[in-house]
Amino acid sequence: MTFRGSIIPVLCVIAAAATIVILPQVVELFTIINATIYASMAILTLSLALVWGYCGIICFGQTAFFGLGGYAYAVAAINFGDSTPAIALALLVPTLFAGLLGYFIFWGRVTDVYLGVITLTVTLILYKLFNATAGDAYHIGKAALGGFNGIPATPLMNLPWDRKTTLEPEDIWYVAATLLCLAYAFVRWLLSTSFGHLMVAIRENEHRTELLGYDPRRIKLAAFTLGGAMAGASGILFANCVFVSPTMFSLLYTAQVIVWVIIGGLGTLVGPVFACFLLQMITAELGRLNWLNPNFVLGIILIAFVLLMPSGILPTLQRIYDKFSWPILLRTERRRPAQ
Amino acid sequence: MDLAAIVLDQILTSIASLILISIGLAVIFGMMRVINLAHGEFIMLGGYTVITSVNAGINLWFASLILAPLVVGAFGFIIERTIIRFLYGRMIDTMLATWGLSLAMVGAVTMIFGNTTSGVSTPLGSMAFGRYELSNYNFALMGVAIVTIVVLWSALRFTRFGIIARATMQNAQMAGSLGVNSAHVYAITFTIGAALSGLAGGMIAPLSGVLPSMGVQYVAKAFITVISGGSAVVAGTLSASTLLGTLDTGTTFLTTPVFGEVSLLIGAVLLVRAMPQGITGRLFKGST
Fold first, then answer.
1. Distance between CA B109 and CA B114 in Å, rounded?
2. Which residues of B touch A309 (CB under 8 A)?
3. Tens of pLDDT along A11-52?
4. Contacts of residue B276 in chain A, CB cutoff 8 Å?
5. Between vectors from CA A329 to CA A327 and to CA A330, what angle results, nearest 5°?
6. Between the CA of residue B62 and those of A319, B48, B53, what are the distances in Å?
7. How do the domains of chain A map onto residue ranges?
8. Which of residues 134-193 of A touch B (CB under 8 A)?
9. Is A251 an 8 Å CB contact of chain B?
């Protein structure tokens, strides 16, 4: 490893840590809460970037796991009164759901667009299901599901096993931002393992991978389940800075995540995460204009990118960069020989 | 006895509306392999056409049977020429572009009409049946579904365009080398699919009212039906609608509407697990 190759990741870690610590000191609380929402959504984006961009699983229903994680957390936290077991349960529920759904999908040999349609449909059905849970008849233990309104009184996290000390919004920012960095590092690490290489092999040519003696169904199921777990974790964080409602399953949320991945660049990790932060800031600004509908803007952006820049911003920048082959700056770990 | 009649009426209505909301998608997807995620919004556009025309004093039947398909068909034609035709063969990109279209349409209609439900009263009144009332509009819905199916099937089976369209769908290159302009065929097919979605929206509008985001309610059901149906457009839609409509209504009667929809989903997932090619991939092979 060259000197430059090792210094850049270290610099990145230092920069990330500095941002996490300094941000709450310099901006107001409202911005911190927004940044926390963005960070939680970035974990969701990362899960889709992994599942879709690296394993070729077109999951258009990543928000199903996101919403289930949020709901499981809220319901469990209300019932237990302590967020520690609630978090564990809220990770378990979307993971199991993803595992079960993935079993049916991958063992049924459902591929590409069909996969997208089925996962999307599952999300939409969950959206309708949770919307319909209004009234006293729908409750789990002490937690009323609340239909369209969701659970406005979603409890905040507390310190592990210490139900008296709930976290402040700043603390949740620390948790969310740290978790985002950890998730990023984890995905990076995962992609460097032989499992990660298998995922990419399946994306490139599933048939050939199978003929080499691997079982693509298992690898895809593992990747899909992992993505579900990450999306669930993102849902827990989201529940802690907003609250859970059927909106988490809505078409707009699902679309947003896909738009971020597409715009950032399918098959990259940094691109989608940056696109996630950037586009949420833009949408928040546009949301202040009353006459312009955010759906409309998002739709036009998506159409424009598919027609004009289908590979996304980051790969396009990389292509331009490679074309001019600028010798200095940032040229570090890309172009590793395939292992 | 009365109850049985009511249940039968509900089941047939459910099947008829499933046929109507999925046939447009089945044409576009089954023949062109284009997954149109803006399908629900095409239905929504049909619904708004009817509401706007009726408010302007136009006859409801003229609006829903003729105007709605015309308007949505024209809109579909424009979309095919400006967006879809650049993306043939890129299924995922088509799906994303139509998704963008769906969001943009919801946004645009919200900006124009506002985010409220509007509607017209259901025509034809109702008919007493024992202790229950049956809405006559349900029979109109069944009638329109039957006519649509029969007309579409005959058109695909017996007309020149039907043969050309089926040939293009089986092998676009071969059809092209025999002198078929496949770009024309695609444009016309997409327009027909859009028009059928408009018809569905027009027929549904008096029942459920219209809302900018109403498409979501139908798009999931339509996709489940089309995927369960498999590759044959008419036979697939017919068989999948019958199966899923019965399942949905049956479960709804035993529990609540919510579980009806969930049972529809679970039924479809199990069906796709057992028959990955859909119903017509296993049974009724070679049908249209």
1. 7
2. none
3. 877 888 888 878 777 778 888 888 899 999 999 999 999 999
4. 108-110
5. 110
6. 55, 14, 9
7. 3-335
8. none
9. yes
